[in-house]
Each structure stands twice: as C-alpha cells, then as structure tokens.
C-alpha cells in the first residue's frame, strides 16, 4: 500500500523483505531508502537495514567460532591423551638391567687352549671364538712357550668385561728366530741358543778357508741357518773351527 506521496506505508512489515536472500534484501532496503522521501519511513528502513546487517554478521561470527571451538576442544582432548600416555609410560619405565661383568682369570696365558677355554667359561664368559695362532716373525714369542699354548688373551688377565663380551685367544706358534752363533765359543753359543729356546749340538771341524774360517775354537758353521725360524726346543748343530795350517 502506498501513501499519497508515492511512498510505502511506514508500518510495512519486515515480511516485505524477509523472504529475500541477504544480499538481495540489503540491496532492496538500500534502494528504497534512497528513493523514500518520508522521514519516518526512512528511519524505519535505516533501522531495518542496520538490524539486517548486524544479524548477518552475528550469524557469520557464530558459524566461524564454532569450528574454532571444536578444534580447540579436539586439541585439548588430544593433548590430555598425549600427557596421559606420557605419564603412563613414565610410570611403566624400568631402567635397563646392567650387564653382568666377569673377570679374566690369571693363568690363561701359558695354558693350552682347552684349559684356557675351560678357565674362561668357569669365570662366566660365554663368547670365546676359535683361537688364532701367531705367525712366526710377527710377534716375539716367549722362549718358554710351546706350540699351542696361549700367548695372549684379550681382554688381559685380571681385567673386567661384560660376561658376553668376546674374549680372544692367541696361541704361540712354537717357533723362534734362530740366533747367529758364528764366531762364538761353544759355551757362548750354548748360552745364547738356550736363551732363545734351542739346544746345542757341537762338533769339531778342521779349518777350511771357504766354509769354516772363523777363529780357532769358535763357531764357523751352524744348522739351521741364522735368521730362519725353527721350533723351540729343537737342536742347533754347530761346527767348531780348528787352527789354520801353518
């Protein structure tokens, strides 16, 4: 219904625009507000326009806040679950049990392999691989050791290690380097040979300018040759030079 000046009745209900979508409603209200000359009607339209916009903004805010609130609640729940698991894990934590330790017994060095392995097992060691035999010339073997006797143990005797740690055995080859006895007396040669682990067999030999030319009564020949390797306890045969002919 229109007034005599062509304007709608100031009391037109909101139903004139309530069925319109928001953007179209705002546009219609704004358009009528521009064309309306009735102050009362303009005041009504202006209030209606502001109310419509405010309601729309409030609706948008509500729908934007709800997902954020839900996300916050979800994060809070996840955090509580995470903290709960951490507390439970801490409550269930058990410190690792220290590894059992054993001591390498004395008497392993110098024993044969079987006795050495038995001693190590009796001491609690469980990881004893096959022993290695030393290569002659690579290490100095004690003269008193025979072939097959333990020359080295690692870890060393009296040291402590985990009972499941590897214990390595190195066996003596039983061989030593033959000393150079040339020019020594029989007694001197015997002493040096014995210190290296060898025996001596001595025999006289007449002077020979090519093969036995050392000073009289000294070693002019030996077998095995010096610097070679022979089994300790074996015999070095020496020849004692005679006096050269006059």
Walk me through this protein's architecture.
Helix 2 (22-35) packs antiparallel against helix 3 (39-92). This protein has helices at 15-18, 22-35, 39-92, 113-122, 186-195; strands spanning 101-103, 132-133, 150-154, 160-162, 168-171, 175-177, 199-205, 219-223, 229-231, 235-241. The protein is of the alpha/beta class and 246 residues long. A 3-stranded mixed β-sheet has the order 2-5-3, with no helix packed on it. Strands 7-10-8 form a 3-stranded mixed β-sheet, with helices on one face. Mean pLDDT is 85; it is low at 1-11. It has 3 domains: 15-91; 101-173, 2-Layer Sandwich (Trypsin Inhibitor V, Chain A), CATH 3.30.10; 176-241, Trypsin Inhibitor V, Chain A, CATH 3.30.10.
What is the secondary structure topology, with strand pairs?
Layout: H1 15-18, H2 22-35, H3 39-92, E1 101-103, H4 113-122, E2 132-133, E3 150-154, E4 160-162, E5 168-171, E6 175-177, H5 186-195, E7 199-205, E8 219-223, E9 229-231, E10 235-241
Parallel strand pairs: 2-5, 7-10
Antiparallel strand pairs: 1-4, 3-5, 6-9, 8-10
Helix pairs in contact: 2-3
Keywords:
disordered N terminus; Trypsin Inhibitor V, Chain A; 3 domains; 3-stranded mixed sheet; 246 residues; 17% strand; 37% helix; alpha/beta
Helix content: 25-40%
Estimated structural class: alpha/beta
**Tally of structural domains:** 3
What is the CA-atom radius of gyration, in angstroms? Answer: 55 Å
What is the strand content? 15-25%
Low-pLDDT regions: 1-11
Q: Which outline best applies?
A: rod-shaped
Strand order of the largest sheet: 2-5-3
- First CA to last CA: what distance? 168 Å
Separate helix tally: 5
Largest sheet: 3 strands, mixed
Order of helices and strands: HHHEHEEEEEHEEEE
Number of strands: 10
Mean pLDDT: 85
